[in-house]
Automatic annotation (TrEMBL), chain A:
Purpose: Heme chaperone required for the biogenesis of c-type cytochromes. Transiently binds heme delivered by CcmC and transfers the heme to apo-cytochromes in a process facilitated by CcmF and CcmH.
HAMAP family for this protein: CcmE
GO cellular component: plasma membrane
Extracellular side: 29-179
Major location category of this protein: membrane
Regions of this protein lying in the Cytoplasmic compartment: 1-7
Protein name: Cytochrome c-type biogenesis protein CcmE
Originating species: Acetobacter tropicalis
Gene Ontology MF annotations: heme binding; metal ion binding
SUPFAM superfamilies, per database record: Heme chaperone CcmE (SSF82093)
Subcellular localization, as worded in the UniProt entry: Cell membrane; Membrane
Residue numbers spanned by region Disordered: 139-179
PANTHER family with a match to the protein in the record: CYTOCHROME C-TYPE BIOGENESIS PROTEIN CCME HOMOLOG, MITOCHONDRIAL (PTHR34128:SF2)
The gene coding this protein: ccmE
TrEMBL record, chain B:
UniProt similarity note: Belongs to the CcmF/CycK/Ccl1/NrfE/CcsA family.
Domain Cytochrome c-type biogenesis protein CcmF C-terminal: 316-641
Subcellular location: Cell inner membrane
Membrane topology reported for the UniProt record: Multi-pass membrane protein
Entry-linked PANTHER family: CYTOCHROME C ASSEMBLY PROTEIN-RELATED (PTHR43653), CYTOCHROME C-TYPE BIOGENESIS PROTEIN CCMF (PTHR43653:SF1)
Protein name per its UniProtKB record: Cytochrome c-type biogenesis protein CycK
Gene Ontology molecular functions: heme binding; heme transmembrane transporter activity
Organism: Acetobacter tropicalis
TM ranges: 6-27, 39-63, 97-114, 126-145, 176-196, 208-230, 250-267, 274-293, 313-332, 353-375, 395-414, 426-443, 449-467, 488-512, 619-639
UniProt function note: Required for the biogenesis of c-type cytochromes. Possible subunit of a heme lyase.
Length: 179, 661
């Protein structure tokens, strides 16, 4: 076995494995990536029913309804980004940090009867907002994190950007210290 | 006595010590000045002492409820139990950075204390590199995240810790995980020192391997502990979420596993030298990036402590300096390292190369999957996430061949081997595997779980075969076999045990894909059926705790009418933070976990109903048990005499052609 043939074997093995890895990744990227959508995006252009997406926004205050189908608990709540609201249906235990008026991410699919979530995530820290939700709020002009905590979800559908700025009390201007 | 100011001073002192430790020994090694080189161990021990004092000051502030210290006020409270006052020290950003620095200090001092048989120039350089890295981290701690900052006026009580973190599993998870992360700084320092000297040889491989194996053991335990914590605390019945932070610990584990295998080739055959040096650099770089990803909040994660741009920029700079600098040195110096011995594709070396290629492919997949979402949002402003489906679809097909080759790799002879004799020796393992396949095909649904069960049994059977073949069990009298077993180096047992541990973990993972669960909302007195068990909710009561009040359910579980266990899942409400946590109740018989979660209380007070989540998780404990077996295998191989004594003296260089940097 000369140095050259040995090197050839090495290169073949490397190329085969990395090629397989790249092929697997490309296949997975086309089918297994989960996109983040806001309620307004769902309202304008609903994703296909077989596509899993992450729906993020704030839980509209007073929208949480709990029902029982046989022995299965079903929760329904509206998620809003200030532009539109989508009703989410979830079978199971809502996480401990799930609150009305706070941010939430629901993973699931858009069906005819509404968004059916397979998983509902609220973050560990109650002062922490999922980055994707915060981004979506900032983009829609409903919230500027420099001016204090996000406004309550109930007020959003009627609120304009000007209202949000006017509404700020001087206390809220003081940026909360991070440590 | 142990005031926060003293702690702050000690931290600054440690930083100065570390800076001196990073510079002076290098000068000494360059000038071949023994006296300057001999400063290195003293400086490393001095730095460790200062860090210990600093850390004790912070612990003291937390234990004595000194709320004038910002960090304690923000993370502790009078009512918090003592254990969590101590462990809460590293449950936040500032404290965890200090802990990180402390462990790095321990690593430096360990090299100083146990590295007596190293050549003095190499030892001085290794300690210097560790000192330079430590200086960076201590500067980071001092300038952007001072754990000793005072607050005025001091509050009467602290804000308390996140109740989720108030758990023994999580209390000890960070120190163990950090020891794993930071431990890879030692192989990194050895790699940099070797590049400076321009020399990597068998002796280098033998010196570097124990450090890498030790760090790997800690990292393995740390990851397993974290996974176990999320399993029994978060109450989802899941054990691995492919969360960016979890991936940040898995990536250095994968490259570190490749490193401990490629270092064997350096030690035994002087091959793969350049590659091993690169792996050592990569593994520590991944560990550092892991910290960076957590601390800066660049990745959305449940673990993010604080999102502070100043910290992110500092860490990014530190990262660029360490990784960029070491890679530049590598590019400059690596060509001067000579190539090692020849080997045929079918040989022990060949198997280890294949192990490295496959592990690195998996590592590349995990890195891509973890980094893709932040890059997409940065470059194209699209928010996406990459989760379990992606990682399952990409890592499992790459892991399966790795597991298959793992079976006969350790049985191949060095240099050049015949595949057939090895396969002949494995006939029994192959039959056992075939039976496992058939059993799995009938009892388990899904192609991947069946294949995984098969390869898991294959790994375990092949590891057992490796040992029985070496001791000639049943081929000679038992006493002779025992005698042979006593003569066998412990590292052989370590390898077999660690490989069997992988098999156990894979078996657990495969079985967990068959887990069953049920979510119901029922009044007291109802019986549910799941996986052949009858679960009866008999009672729900309200009970007080030290700093919370709990809603406790009583669930009796019967199997064919016989009482198996009574479990008490509960829901705790913490008054100080207005938070609730879910306390899962788990009954295990090591073959399956019965897992009960109490959810919300609904209905009227006269006729309340409770949401219950019931899980049946087959072989769940095996996932963590396997990790523990892997770590024990690593520790066993560390206890091998060859790792400790008789470290080879370096062959005298014939000429001074390869000189120091």
């Amino acid at each position: 076995m000369t140095r050259k043939t040995r090197r050839l074997w090495l290169i073949i093995a490397c190329v085969a494995c990395l090629g397989a890895a790249a092929a697997l990744m490309l296949r997975a990227f086309s089918s297994d990536i989960v996109f983040f959508v806001t309620p307004s995006q769902v309202a304008t252009k609903p994703p296909p029913a077989d596509r899993t997406v992450r729906l993020g926004g704030m839980v509209v205050a007073g929208s949480v309804k709990r029902e029982k189908h046989g022995e299965t608990p079903v929760a329904r709540f509206d998620v809003t980004d200030g532009q539109a609201a989508v009703t989410v249906r979830y079978e199971g235990i809502l996480p401990d940090l799930f609150r009305e008026g706070q941010s939430v991410v629901a993973v699931g699919t858009m069906q005819k009867e509404g968004f059916v979530a397979s998983e509902v995530l609220a973050k560990h820290d109650e002062t922490y907002m999922p980055k994707e939700v915060a981004e979506a709020l900032k983009k829609s002009g409903k919230w500027d994190p420099r001016f204090g905590p996000p406004p309550s979800a109930a007020s959003w559908n009627s609120m304009t950007v000007q209202d949000a700025k006017k509404d700020l009390s001087p206390k809220e201007h003081a940026a909360p210290s991070t440590n | 006595m142990l005031s926060p100011e003293l702690g702050h001073y000690a931290l600054a002192l440690a930083c100065i010590f570390a800076a001196a430790q990073g510079i002076l020994p290098l000068i000494g090694a360059h000038r071949r000045d023994r006296r300057v080189m001999m400063l290195a161990p003293g400086l490393a021990l001095g730095q460790l002492f200062a860090l210990v004092v600093s850390f004790l000051c912070l612990v003291n502030a937390a234990v004595t409820d000194d709320f004038s210290v910002q960090n304690v006020a923000a993370n502790s409270a009078v009512t918090k139990p003592l254990l969590y006052k101590i462990t809460g020290v590293w449950g936040n950003h500032e404290g965890s950075v200090l802990l990180w620095a402390l462990i790095l200090g321990v690593c430096g001092a360990a090299v100083a204390a146990f590295g007596r048989n190293l050549p003095s120039a190499l030892r001085a350089r290794v300690i210097a590199v560790l000192g330079a890295v430590a200086a960076g981290f201590e500067l980071f701690c001092l300038t952007t995240s001072d754990p000793f900052a005072r607050v005025w006026p001091a509050p009467m009580d602290g804000q308390g810790m996140n109740p989720l973190l108030q758990d023994p599993g999580l209390a000890f998870h960070p120190p163990i995980l950090y020891t794993g992360y930071v431990g890879f700084a030692v192989p990194f320092a050895f790699a940099i020192a070797a590049l400076m000297e321009g020399r990597v040889d068998a002796a280098w491989g033998r010196w570097v391997r124990p450090w890498a194996v030790a760090a790997w053991c800690f990292l393995t335990c740390g990851i397993a502990l974290g996974s176990w914590w999320s399993y029994y605390v978060l109450g989802w019945g899941g054990y691995w979420f492919w969360d960016p932070v979890e991936n940040a610990s898995l990536i250095p584990w994968l490259s570190g596993t490749a490193l401990i295998h490629s270092a064997i080739v350096v030690e035994k055959r002087e091959g793969l030298k350049i590659w091993t040096v690169l792996l050592a650099i990569a593994t520590f770089s991944f560990s550092l990036s892991g910290t960076f990803l957590v601390r800066s909040g660049i990745l959305n994660s449940v673990h993010a402590f604080a999102n502070d741009p100043a910290r992110g920029i500092f860490i990014l700079g530190l990262l660029a300096l360490v990784i960029g600098g070491s890679l530049a040195l590598f590019a400059y110096r690596a060509p001067s390292l000579t190539a090692g011995g020849l080997f045929a594709p079918v040989s022990r070396e060949g198997a280890l190369v294949l192990n490295n290629i496959l592990l690195c492919s998996i590592c590349a997949v995990v890195v891509t999957g973890t980094m893709y979402p932040p890059f997409m949002s940065l470059l194209f402003d699209r928010t996406i996430s990459v989760g379990k489906p992606f990682f399952d679809a990409t890592t499992i097909p790459l892991a399966l061949p790795l597991f298959i080759f793992m079976g006969f790799g350790p049985m191949l002879p060095w240099k050049r081997a015949q595949l057939w004799p090895v396969l002949q020796r494995l006939w029994l393992a192959a039959i056992v595997t075939a039976i496992a396949f058939l059993v799995a095909a009938f009892g388990v649904s899904g192609l991947l779980p069946v294949l995984s069960c098969g390869v898991a049994v294959w790994i375990i059977a092949a590891s057992v075969t490796d040992i029985t073949e070496r001791v000639r069990l049943f081929r000679m009298p038992l006493a002779g076999s025992l005698q042979r077993a006593r003569m066998l180096p412990r590292s052989i047992f370590g390898t077999a045990l660690a490989h069997a541990g992988v098999g156990i973990t894979v078996l657990g993972l495969a079985a967990m894909s068959q887990a069953q669960h049920k979510i119901v909302e029922v009044p007291v007195g109802t019986t549910e059926h799941l996986a052949g068990y009858d679960w009866t909710l008999t009672n729900v009561t309200q009970e007080p705790g030290p700093n919370y009040s709990a809603l406790v359910a009583t669930i009796e579980i019967r199997h064919h009418g016989k009482l198996v266990t009574v479990m008490h899942p509960s829901k705790r409400s913490f008054n100080s933070q207005n938070q609730t946590t879910t306390e899962v109740s788990i009954h295990t018989n090591l073959l399956a976990d019965l897992y009960g979660v109490l959810g919300d209380k609904h209905g009227t007070d006269a006729a309340p109903t409770y949401v219950l989540r019931l899980h049946y998780n087959p072989l769940a404990p095996w996932m963590w048990l396997g990790a523990l077996v892997m770590a024990i295998g690593g520790a066993l191989s560390l206890s091998d005499r060859r790792m400790r004594v008789g470290a080879p003296r370096r062959a005298k260089l014939s000429a001074e052609t390869v000189t120091a940097a």
